């Protein structure tokens, strides 16, 4: 089966700095792919190349079997790549359902003053998120009132809910306590069953071992190793990240 | 028997927990409804002090004198929701009034003159919005600049002369009524109701709230935040133009050197109403209550024949008290 995302030999320089010197990555549908590496290994630059923030200098990015070059994150989103950034892009003073449907509101009528179909959005948010989340907050609650884990879950649930084929998550549980981290990991597990490809950047190797199907290691702007998670142990990953023998 | 008692106790407990009592114990309830609560308290005090306060004639007068402030506060609400502020109201209002007067006295007819006044206000709003969103000038500075500019322009265009506008239509607007309901405040209340619906029931309103709540996140979600910020200042300006028509109807003329205190009271009304000056929250019902609180204070003091020197002190204290209460907000 064609992987959702297929990246080959992507290179990107900023002036004299070669941030990417041959990055590779495969994200199959229905799997969790982990991207690991030390700070400055090129993970963030690679993500920015995928989502259209940067244009790669060379190499190929295929999305659902098609070569793509997104001009902006909005462009990437329109084609089905959602990114959950660390700031989550939630509006604290709006309710859960309003955030869920932000800029995708269901409306009746036409023109700039289209009428919101509040009832339908509230019900559908309950259905969509209720199915995925273990710690589902009240749909009408303002995000300001939610815990960090609930916010993270809403942001991920929203990203996964809009017909996207690929959800990219940057350190999805870095700021969370133990129990909340568990809830977010359950959500990620549930999304696997939805057939979405998930790409996760994480420094937490225990977590990577727990939730991922495959692991890709970057160092010095290159992809230097990849394994099926079940075939590798933590020591070898650490060695690869740090620059020992693979 | 003992068992029966037990059951009845349980029932009361259930009733209590779903009733208003727990709400009253929640400090957030007081913070969210500071203006409405303030209005009730101040109204109760005045109606104890003078029997005239709670008569329909007085309430109706009070609403009429609150009308222009209500429209201006609704205008201000749009700017404040995005985290902005509109200081140019005090220059835009006399400017739009002068345009209205010149247009009508120049023989353009009432309909065209009203449209001209609203367009004059809209134009100022559009300039505010463009300077703020495109030239990236801070809202406070941009509208402060426009305040000076429009005060000057109003004086130049009118040659510094105030003039009267005589029209049966305007008289009917200022004095007429449907049954006991005067047109004057009916218009103001309809505008406030419209603004409330925009924020609660339209995608546009939601996007404005998102822009004010977290500009970066709104942009990430694909909302055109610059266009939103321009749009709110355009609506703001149009409403100021409309307020100018009401002002001319009420005073019978336009005065280019009008120094309106309603700039500060419009901001005070919005803040009293519970909208954050940092943006993201629209409490139009609160803003209406806020404008009514400020007008009620003046009305009650006049009824009680308290020296008008004390009025600004009372207004100032109420605004600060409301700000303290709003720290309890949820």
From TrEMBL, chain A:
Domain ABC transporter: 5-245
Family annotation (SUPFAM superfamilies): P-loop containing nucleoside triphosphate hydrolases
Database matches in PROSITE patterns: ABC_TRANSPORTER_2
Keywords per UniProt: ATP-binding, Nucleotide-binding
Membrane-spanning residues: none
CDD domains: ABC_Carb_Monos_I (cd03216)
UniProt GO molecular function: ATP binding; ATP hydrolysis activity
Cited InterPro entries: AAA+_ATPase, ABC_carbohydrate_import_ATPase, ABC_transporter-like_ATP-bd, P-loop_NTPase
Pfam families the UniProt entry points to: ABC_tran (PF00005)
PANTHER family assigned: CARBOHYDRATE TRANSPORT ATP-BINDING PROTEIN MG119-RELATED, SUGAR ABC TRANSPORTER ATP-BINDING PROTEIN
Name under which the protein is recorded: ABC transporter sugar permease
Species the sequence originates in: Acidocella aminolytica 101 = DSM 11237
UniProtKB/TrEMBL annotation, chain B:
Coiled-coil region: none
Domain of life: Bacteria
TM regions (residue ranges): 34-54, 66-90, 110-133, 140-163, 183-209, 230-249, 261-278, 283-303, 309-328
Gene Ontology MF: a single term: transmembrane transporter activity
Pfam families: BPD_transp_2
Protein's membrane topology: Multi-pass membrane protein
Name of this chain's protein: ABC transporter monosaccharide permease
InterPro entries: ABC_transp_permease (IPR001851)
Keywords from the named record: Cell inner membrane, Cell membrane, Membrane, Transmembrane, Transmembrane helix, Transport
Subcellular localization(s) per the UniProt record: Cell membrane
PANTHER family hit by this protein: ABC TRANSPORTER PERMEASE PROTEIN YPHD-RELATED, ABC TRANSPORTER PERMEASE PROTEIN YPHD-RELATED-RELATED
GO CC aspect terms: plasma membrane
């Amino acid at each position: 089966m064609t992987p959702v995302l297929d990246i080959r030999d992507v290179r990107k320089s900023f002036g004299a700095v070669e941030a990417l010197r041959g990055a590779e990555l495969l994200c199959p549908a229905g799997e969790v792919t982990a991207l690991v590496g030390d700070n400055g290994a090129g993970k963030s630059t690679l993500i920015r190349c995928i989502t259209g923030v940067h244009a790669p200098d060379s190499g190929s990015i295929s999305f659902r079997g098609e070569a793509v070059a997104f001009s902006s994150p909005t462009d990437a989103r329109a084609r089905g790549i959602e990114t959950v950034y660390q700031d989550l892009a939630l509006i604290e003073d709006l309710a859960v359902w309003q955030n869920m449907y932000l800029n995708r509101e269901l409306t009746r009528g036409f023109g700039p003053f289209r009428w919101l179909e509040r009832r339908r959005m509230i019900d559908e948010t309950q259905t969509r998120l209720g199915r995925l989340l273990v710690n589902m907050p009240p749909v009408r609650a303002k995000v300001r009132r939610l815990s960090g884990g609930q916010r993270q879950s809403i942001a991920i649930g929203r990203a996964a809910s809009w017909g996207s084929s690929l959800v990219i998550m940057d350190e999805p549980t870095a700021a969370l306590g133990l129990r909340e981290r568990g809830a977010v990991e359950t959500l990620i597990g549930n999304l696997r069953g939805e057939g979405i490809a998930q790409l996760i950047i994480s420094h937490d190797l225990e977590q990577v071992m727990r939730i991922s199907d495959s692991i890709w290691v970057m160092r010095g702007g290159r992809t230097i190793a990849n394994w099926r998670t079940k075939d590798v142990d933590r020591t070898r990953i650490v060695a690869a990240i740090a620059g020992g023998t693979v | 028997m003992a068992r029966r008692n037990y059951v009845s106790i349980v029932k009361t407990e259930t009733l209590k927990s779903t009733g208003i009592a727990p709400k009253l114990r929640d400090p957030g309830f007081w913070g969210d409804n500071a203006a409405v609560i303030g209005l009730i308290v101040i109204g109760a005090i005045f109606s104890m002090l003078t029997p005239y306060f709670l008569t329909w004639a007085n309430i109706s007068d009070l609403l009429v004198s609150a009308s222009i402030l209500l429209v201006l506060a609704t205008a201000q609400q749009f700017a404040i929701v995005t985290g902005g502020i509109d200081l140019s109201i005090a220059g835009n209002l006399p400017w739009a009034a002068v345009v209205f007067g010149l247009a009508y006295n120049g023989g353009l007819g009432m309909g065209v003159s009203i449209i001209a006044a609203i367009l004059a206000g809209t134009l100022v709003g559009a300039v505010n919005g463009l300077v703020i969103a495109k030239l990236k000038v801070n809202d406070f500075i941009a509208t402060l600049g426009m305040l000076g500019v429009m005060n000057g322009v109003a004086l130049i265009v009118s040659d510094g002369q105030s003039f009267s506008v005589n029209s049966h239509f305007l008289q009917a607007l200022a004095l007429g009524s449907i049954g006991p309901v005067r047109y004057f405040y009916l218009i103001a209340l309809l505008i406030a109701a419209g603004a409330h619906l925009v924020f609660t029931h339209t995608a546009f309103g939601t996007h404005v709230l998102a822009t004010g709540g977290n500009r970066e996140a709104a942009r990430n979600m694909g909302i055109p935040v610059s266009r939103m910020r321009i749009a709110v200042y355009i609506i703001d300006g149009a409403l100021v133009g409309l307020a100018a028509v009401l002002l001319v109807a009420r005073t019978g003329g336009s005065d280019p050197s009008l120094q309106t205190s309603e700039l500060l009271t419009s901001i005070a009304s919005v803040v009293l109403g519970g909208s954050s000056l940092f943006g993201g929250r629209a409490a139009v019902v609160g803003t209406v209550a806020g404008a009514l609180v400020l007008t009620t204070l003046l009305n009650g003091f006049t009824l009680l024949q308290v020296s008008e020197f004390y009025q600004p002190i009372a207004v100032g204290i109420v605004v600060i008290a409301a700000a303290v209460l709003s720290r309890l907000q949820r």
